[in-house]
Automatic annotation (TrEMBL):
InterPro entries linked: Cytidine_deaminase-like
Transmembrane segments: none
Top-level taxon of the source organism: Bacteria
Enzyme nomenclature, EC number: 3.5.4.5
RNA-binding is among the record's keywords: no
Classification of source organism: Bacteria, Bacillati, Bacillota, Bacilli, Bacillales
Protein name: Cytidine deaminase
GO-annotated molecular function: cytidine deaminase activity
Enzyme class name: hydrolase
Keywords from the UniProt entry: Hydrolase
Entries under SUPFAM superfamilies matching the protein: Cytidine deaminase-like
Length: 132
C-alpha cells in the first residue's frame, strides 16, 4: 500500500476509534522516513481558541524533527455518513509550506476520490515565490 492509501486508512481508523458515534474528524501526515502521524482537533469551550485537525500532526513533526511529505484531513457528519476529504485550509497550507511547495495534500473532489496535489498546484501563486 502506498503512502497516500496508508494515510487515508490511518485517518479513517482514528475517526472510528476516537469518534465511534456522531461527528468525527482526523488528520494523518506522512514523513520522509515513512512515519505516519495522526491527530484530531482539540475540543475547546471557546470557539476562538479552536485549532485545525491537522495541527497536532504538524506540531508532532516539528517535535520529532521530521520532514512532512503528505497530508490528509478527513471528516464525517455522523457514524453513517460517508467520509469526506477536506483540502487544507489556508492556515494549514501555510504551516505545510514550511516543508516546501512539493508537499502533497489530499484535496476535496466532488466524486469523493482520493486525490493528492502538491501545495504548488493548490496555490500556484503563493507568496513564497517572491523570495526564491
Amino acid at each position: 500500500m502506498d503512502m497516500e492509501q496508508r494515510l487515508y486508512q490511518a485517518a479513517i481508523k482514528l475517526i472510528e476509534k476516537r469518534y465511534p458515534t456522531g461527528w468525527g474528524g482526523a488528520a494523518a501526515m506522512g514523513t520522509e522516513n515513512g512515519m505516519i502521524l495522526t491527530s484530531v482537533a482539540p475540543e475547546a469551550i471557546n470557539a476562538s481558541t479552536e485549532l485545525c485537525i491537522e495541527t497536532g500532526c504538524i506540531c508532532e513533526a516539528h517535535k520529532l524533527n521530521q520532514i512532512v511529505t503528505h497530508s490528509i484531513c478527513i471528516v464525517r457528519e455522523n457514524a453513517i455518513s460517508p467520509f469526506q476529504i477536506l483540502t487544507p485550509c489556508g492556515v494549514c497550507q501555510e504551516r505545510l509550506f514550511y516543508w516546501g511547495p512539493q508537499v502533497k495534500a489530499a484535496v476535496y473532489t466532488p466524486d469523493g476520490q482520493l486525490r493528492y496535489q502538491s501545495l504548488k498546484e493548490i496555490q500556484p501563486y503563493h507568496w513564497y515565490q517572491a523570495y526564491r
